[in-house]
Specification:
alpha+beta; homodimer; 4-stranded antiparallel beta sheet; DNA-binding
Chain lengths: 250, 250
DNA sequence: CCGCTTCCTTGACTTGGATCAAAATTCATG
DNA sequence: CATGAATTTTGATCCAAGTCAAGGAAGCGG
C-alpha cells in the first residue's frame, strides 16, 4: 500500500475551509447548525490498508470521508468476501441509530475522517432539520447506487462487470472535474485487482484477464497499471451492456 | 396470477384503523402530523401481475405498501432482468425528491397502496421532523438489506442463494407472527420460480433444480408448490453459508 | 370435461468463470 | 541494487450454472 496522491491541503480544520463542505452531510447546514456540528466533531486519520472498524464492533461515532477511499466489505466464514460499499470523499459512515457496524470498514488509500460522536449527532439530527434532510438524500442515493450494483452482480458477464466498474469511475471523474463532454478520460484506479474482484463478485484472475482483454481490444489503455486512459467513453459504455441513452439512470 | 390470500379487513380508510400504522413512514407521527398526511393521501389498488409504474415514467406520488407484495426490477436491453427490491407491507415506494422512477414497479400479488402526492409530501417532510426521521431509518434498513443481498448475488452458490432467500422469508414470518423460537415454520412463497430467479441472479431452471434438491435433502417440505414448510430452521440456516450465530446481522 | 396457457420439473449438453499452478512485474527495504 | 514480498499476468483444466429441449401439473374459460 502506498501514499495518497491527492492529499488535501486542509490544515485549519475549520469547516469553512473544508473540501467537502458542500457535498457532505453538513451541506445544507446554516451557520448555527454548523457551529453545533463543529462542537462535536474531531478528525481521525488512517493509513492505506488499515482497518477502520471491524464488523460487529461497537462504534461510538459516525463520520464523513474528507479525503481518501474506504470500503465496506462482508466476509463469510470460509473467507469469501464481497465489497458492499465504496466510500469516497463526502460519503457518510455509520448509522446514527445503531451502536454497532455491520461491515468491515477499511481504508484503501490514506483516509481522513471527520467524526461526530454518535449520541450528540443523533440529538442534533432530532433537533435540526437540515442534517436529516441531507442524510436522507445521501442515503437514497446510496440505495440507488447499490441497486445498480445488484444488476451488475446478478446479471452481467465478467467483461461487462469490469467495463461497468471503469465507467462508474470515469463518470465520477467527469463530475468532480467538471470537464464534461470530452470523450477521452484519464483516471487512477484506487483498487487492487483483488479489491476489484471483491467489488464485482469475481476472482482476481478473471479481473486480470478481462482487463487484458479490454486493453487488447483498445477499449482502455494502461499507462501505469493503476492509471487508466479511456480513449472513447462511448466505446466503454457500449461494453457495459447498459442502455446507451442513459435509460438506466433515467 | 391469483388472489391475495391474506386480504386485510381494512375498510374505513382511517389511519387509526390502518394495518401498517405503526411500521410505515407515518409510524412516529403525532395526531397533528397524521392529520396533515391524511389530507393528502389516497388509496390505489393494483391486481396481481399489473405494472404499477415503468422505469423512467414520471411519478407524481410516493406511497406505502398497505397490503400485498410488489417488486422493483431493472431490465437490460437484451431482456436480462434483475430484481433490486422486494416490497412488503409498510415498505415505501418512490423518492420525495425525484419526479421519475428508476425501476419498474410491479404488483406480484394484489396490492393496496397508500399514496401521497409528491410535492405536498415533500413539503411536509421539510416542515415536520417525524416523517423524515422515520423515512431515514427505513431507508437505512433498506440499504442494509440490499447489501446483504449483494453478498448473496456476488458470492453465494445457487443452493446457498435459494436457502438464503427462504431463510429471509422465514425470518420475516417469525417476526410478523411474533411466534419466536419454534424451529418449524410454514409460509407462502409469494414469487414464481421465474421471479425467484430474477431475485437471485439465476435461471428459473436452476431455481427449480435447487428447490428439488433442498426438498430431496429434507431441508424443506413442499405442501403445495407455493406453500413451504421448514421443519428445522437451524438446518436451513446451515445451508445459507452464513455465520450460524447471527454474526451477519451483528 | 376439454383444450389452452402458465408454471414447474427434469434431462442432455455447453460454457464462462473458477481453480490450480507458475512465471513475470512491481515495489519496499536493508 | 539485491532480496524478498506483494501484485499481476497467463496457461491448463474443471465444474457449477446456463442453454436448449421435452414433458408434466395446475389452473381457467368455454
Amino acid at each position: 500500500m502506498s501514499m495518497n496522491p491527492s492529499a488535501p491541503s486542509f490544515r485549519t480544520g475549520d469547516c469553512s475551509d473544508c473540501p467537502i463542505r458542500h457535498r457532505a452531510v453538513c451541506a445544507r447546514c446554516d451557520d448555527d447548525e454548523l457551529q453545533q456540528l463543529e462542537a462535536i466533531k474531531f478528525y481521525r486519520k488512517f493509513s492505506a490498508g488499515e482497518v477502520i472498524i471491524w464488523a460487529g464492533d461497537p462504534m461510538d461515532f459516525v463520520a464523513s470521508v474528507v479525503a481518501g477511499v474506504a470500503t465496506l466489505t462482508q466476509t463469510m466464514e470460509d473467507g469469501r468476501r464481497q465489497m458492499v460499499g465504496l466510500l469516497l470523499g463526502s460519503d457518510f459512515i455509520g448509522r446514527p441509530d445503531r451502536s454497532h457496524v455491520a461491515y468491515d470498514v477499511t481504508a484503501i488509500t490514506d483516509v481522513t475522517l471527520c467524526c461526530f460522536r454518535r449520541k450528540p449527532f443523533r440529538d442534533l439530527l432530532m433537533a435540526t432539520p437540515h442534517i436529516g434532510q441531507r442524510l436522507l438524500e445521501m442515503t437514497l442515493d446510496e440505495l440507488d447506487a447499490s441497486r445498480e450494483w445488484m444488476l451488475i452482480l446478478g446479471r452481467k458477464t465478467a467483461r461487462e462487470k469490469i467495463a461497468s466498474f471503469l465507467f462508474i469511475l470515469a463518470r465520477r471523474e467527469t463530475l468532480t472535474d467538471g470537464k464534461a463532454g470530452g470523450t477521452s478520460i484519464t483516471f487512477d484506479l484506487p483498487l487492487t485487482r483483488e479489491a476489484m474482484a471483491d467489488y464485482l463478485g469475481l476472482t482476481l484472475e478473471t479481473v486480470s484477464r478481462q482487463m487484458s482483454a479490454l486493453k487488447r481490444d483498445g477499449v482502455i489503455v494502461l499507462a501505469d497499471k493503476r492509471r487508466i486512459v479511456v480513449p472513447d467513453c462511448k466505446r466503454l459504455l457500449d461494453e457495459t451492456g447498459d442502455d446507451a441513452d442513459g435509460g438506466v439512470l433515467a
